[in-house]
Amino acid sequence: MCDKTGTSIPQIGFGTFQIPPEDTQRAVEEALELGYRHIDTAAAYYNEQQVGDALRATGMAGKVWVTTKLRNCDQGYDAARVAFDESRRKLGVDVIDMYLIHWPFPAAGFYRETWRALLKLRDEGAIRVPGVSNFLPEHLRAIIEDSGEAPAVNQIEVHPRFNQPGVRAFCKAHGIAVEAYSPLGHGRDIASEPVTKAAEAHGVTPGQVVLRWHTQEGRIVIPKSKHAERMRENLASAGFDLTAAEIAAIDALDDPHANVSSDPATFTHSQSWADQHVRGNI
Ligand SMILES: NC(=O)c1ccc[n+]([C@@H]2O[C@H](COP(=O)([O-])OP(=O)(O)OC[C@H]3O[C@@H](n4cnc5c(N)ncnc54)[C@H](OP(=O)(O)O)[C@@H]3O)[C@@H](O)[C@H]2O)c1
Known about the structure:
It is globular, with a radius of gyration of 18 Å. Strands 1-2-3-4-5-6-7-8 form an eight-stranded parallel sheet. The mean pLDDT is 96. The protein has a single domain, classed as TIM Barrel (Alpha-Beta Barrel). The longest helix is centred in the first third of the chain and has 15 residues, at 77-91. By secondary structure, it is α/β, with parallel strands linked by helices. Helix content is 41%, strand content 13%. The structure holds NADP nicotinamide-adenine-dinucleotide phosphate. Residues 15-17, 40, 102, 133-134, 155, 181-187, 190, 207, 222-227, 230, 233-234, 261 line the site of NADP nicotinamide-adenine-dinucleotide phosphate.
């Protein structure tokens, strides 16, 4: 999978949100052993250190694709640079493959200058691909107008019952690759009828149908599982092709109110440790 700059990003990655810090090193080592070559973390998950420990223990630091993200409370030009260095130290790499602004946090009004900080870090060679997450068209338009440069990647919530056709169309029109987070809808969307029907037709699991629905449409996916069997299953989801009718039937499940995450226009949590702890995310 290549973004618009021609950089190759492994299309199926391993997500680490809500894997407690004490379990993260083992889970990431297991994922790497099973063949994952793309790990997704964030400063707000408070497990970057343990992702780094797994990379160091397996000798994979610098050899696999690692994405991390800037917390809301670190937005701003200077603050973003400080936070970036902290993430780089914890991950134990000189260059971060992909660094994303985690949320636009429009109430703070810093995302334009934060985007400029990421572009500067890219120009300095410290980030391979600067990108964004949870950006709606209005936020994407604002950074494009301000900096003259669209991000290569927008990591957004996409799963069968909440597939964001509007944001995806905007991204497509601007050459922005879509990376689907919560690609399985927290595991809830896999029981939908068009999914189970396609699974039966292709002799695969419902989870594999959902992931193939994403990858066949060109999206990067980062499913998370604590179980080796599911990690293996998710990574092995590319060996068949869905028909156009099967894809259309899954697309048609879209319900604009079926999001499992927050609304980017109003998400204003700081993502500090205390904040994430109170919200039960760590
Ligand atoms: N940028 C953002 O704001 C943002 C927000 C949310 C998530 N993310 C990223 O996206 C990653 C994935 O999202 P997510 O964890 O929210 O949701 P997800 O990957 O859609 O779903 C994970 C859930 O599905 C279950 N599962 C995994 N594989 C399965 C399979 N093959 N069959 C049935 N159930 C399965 C898992 O259970 P077990 O663990 O018990 O197997 C877990 O409960 C995160 O880890 C994080 O890296 C980013």
